[in-house]
């Protein structure tokens, strides 16, 4: 292989010897509108059709109305069905079978493929004239039989994995998953049951096995779908004799999916990581050269190369965060296989660059936040870098809020609901703010002091002295307490004979605090105390004349 040098990303290619892999568990691939269970996909159709129209609708996708063969299947359906609606089942009169390997009792109901109803959940047993059945509303999902098959009900389609049916004028559609190829096991054209593909008539005809049969068409279907991952198999009817002229024929194909290619890589990586992409070819005894192309999904394509061994490894560095679909396509003269896998590339989380707090119309841009107790608080966070970021707020080691964002650079608001705020204590609470993602080894964190305040109520101030006695020193000591509202800032205004003094002190809680003023002022004093927080102010004037007028230290 020619050497390729790329300046925008790192590319290295190694060829490794083949290694053993455990057997891969078969995975059922269903569309977004379907649910997988027990080797089939189920579609719960909201349309309301008659029995035959519902069956025809299912047949267009290669399926049939649902069969309930055991209690597990019944329970699965009940989790998805609406109990106030009726739902058609794939039940019809047991008709003479056209195969020797199935047997039904004529006159009873059977599944559309002719198999007996060995498991049932009837409200009442079917009567002789009943010709179809459905799940009956408001009965706990029990079944009922009826002769009115033209009524329009909801229905469930069943698409069996590894088996498809195509009515006249349609192709048989087969699809395997990533890295798999089709292997056709059986195919016939004709009819083995009278209940499939009968949209052009309503009454069941009576005929013998000699009048309706089937033709083995395995070889032409294999030739058309050989080596493919998906296939729509048509038939050249001009070369075939119609095996069922009375009712018409259908094409039935049975197949399985064989692993042909493994694409192995991590699901999550950082923009600073070298990602290892391993491609393993599993189909041996092939003809021609093995040629592979790898598309990293970020705009870079590794040119077609010819692996010298069955396993090759590519190392690639993604230059930007995002979700990328990595695809590999390998071909030989007789095989063509593709495989795809998704990888998420994230940018590591950087340091906090924005921490803001907003509560009760007050915004702070700091590591301290004031908010009114009992009301919601918004914390705005932003990072220097990081994608797919999860923010978490902790108090005393317990998580009290979290939120996820695509980009950490864009500021994001986390709301502490009023119930969370009420669970915290009055006053100041130490919170830890953490940011993390899947490629950052340790969360990035910072601290926030959240002070939950109330309006200032019940301010009291007094001179700290015994009775009416004078203080035994020239210092003045004043005691201050609150009913609620702390922490607050206290503003003391002392007015003497000639001068005035203003000082500010902090009060962290509502209990009694003492504040001392050394040699404050000459003469009789008047003291005003204000208690202020961000939500309110309380003011109190303390008359010291009665206590201090006889004291020499404070005489005029």
Automatic annotation (TrEMBL):
InterPro entries: C-type_lectin-like (IPR001304), C-type_lectin-like/link_sf (IPR016186), C-type_lectin/snaclec_domain (IPR050111), CTDL_fold (IPR016187), Lectin_gal-bd_dom (IPR000922), Lectin_gal-bd_sf (IPR043159), PKD_dom_sf (IPR035986)
Coiled coil regions in record: none
One Pfam family from the record: SUEL_Lectin
Signal peptide as annotated in the record: 1-22
Keywords of this entry: Repeat, Signal
CDD domains xref list: CLECT, Gal_Rha_Lectin_PKD1L2
Ranges of residues in domain C-type lectin: 37-158
Domain SUEL-type lectin: 166-258
Protein's recorded name: C-type lectin domain-containing protein
Organism of this sequence: Xenoophorus captivus
């Amino acid at each position: 292989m020619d050497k390729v040098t790329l300046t925008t990303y790192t590319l290295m290619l190694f060829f490794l010897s083949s290694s053993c892999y455990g057997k891969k568990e078969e995975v059922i691939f269903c569309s977004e509108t379907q649910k997988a269970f027990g080797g089939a996909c189920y579609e719960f159709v909201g349309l309301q059709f008659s029995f035959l129209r519902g069956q025809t609708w299912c047949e267009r996708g290669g399926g049939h109305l649902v069969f309930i063969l055991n209690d597990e299947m019944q329970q699965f359906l009940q989790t998805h069905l609406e109990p106030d609606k009726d739902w058609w089942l794939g039940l019809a009169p047991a008709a003479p079978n056209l195969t020797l390997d199935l047997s039904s009792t004529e006159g009873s109901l059977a599944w559309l493929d002719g198999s007996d109803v060995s498991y049932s959940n009837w409200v009442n047993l079917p009567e002789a004239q009943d010709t179809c059945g459905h799940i009956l509303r408001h009965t706990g999902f029990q079944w009922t039989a009826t002769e009115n098959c033209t009524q329009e009900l909801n229905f469930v389609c069943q698409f069996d994995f590894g088996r498809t049916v195509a009515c006249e004028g349609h192709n048989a559609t087969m699809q395997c998953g990533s890295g798999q190829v089709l292997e056709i096991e059986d195919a016939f054209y004709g009819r083995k049951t009278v209940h499939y593909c009968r949209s052009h008539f309503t009454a069941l005809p009576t005929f013998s096995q000699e009048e309706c049969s089937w033709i083995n068409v395995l070889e032409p279907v294999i030739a058309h779908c050989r080596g493919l991952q998906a296939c729509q198999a048509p038939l050249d009817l001009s070369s075939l004799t119609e095996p069922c002229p009375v009712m018409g024929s259908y094409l039935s194909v049975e197949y399985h999916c064989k692993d042909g290619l493994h694409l192995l890589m991590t699901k999550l990586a950082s923009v600073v990581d070298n990602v290892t992409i391993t491609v393993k070819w599993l189909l041996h005894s092939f003809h021609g050269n093995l040629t592979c192309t790898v598309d990293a999904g970020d705009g870079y394509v590794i040119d077609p190369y010819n692996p010298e061994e069955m396993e090759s490894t590519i190392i690639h560095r993604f230059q930007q965060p995002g979700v990328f679909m990595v695809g590999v396509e390998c071909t030989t003269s007789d095989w063509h296989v593709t495989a795809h896998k998704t990888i998420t590339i994230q940018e590591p989380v950087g340091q906090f660059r924005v921490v803001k707090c907003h509560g009760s119309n007050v915004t702070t841009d700091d590591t301290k936040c004031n908010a009114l107790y009992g009301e919601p608080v918004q914390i705005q966070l932003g990072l220097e870098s990081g994608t797919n970021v999860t923010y978490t707020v902790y108090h005393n080691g317990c998580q009290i809020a979290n939120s996820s964002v695509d980009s950490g650079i864009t500021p994001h608001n986390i709301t502490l609901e009023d119930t969370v705020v009420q669970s915290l204590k009055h006053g100041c609470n130490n919170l830890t703010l953490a940011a993390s993602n899947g490629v950052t080894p340790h969360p990035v964190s910072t601290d926030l002091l959240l002070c939950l305040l109330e309006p200032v109520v019940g301010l009291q101030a007094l001179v700290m002295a015994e009775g009416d006695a004078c203080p035994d020193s020239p210092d003045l000591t004043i005691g201050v307490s609150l009913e609620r509202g702390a922490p607050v800032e206290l503003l003391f205004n002392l007015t003497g004979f000639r001068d005035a003094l203003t000082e500010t002190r902090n009060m962290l809680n509502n209990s009694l605090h003492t504040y001392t003023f050394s040699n404050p002022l000459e003469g009789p004093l008047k003291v005003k105390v204000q208690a202020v927080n961000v939500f309110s102010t309380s003011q109190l004037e303390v008359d010291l004349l009665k206590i201090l007028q006889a004291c020499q230290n404070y005489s005029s």
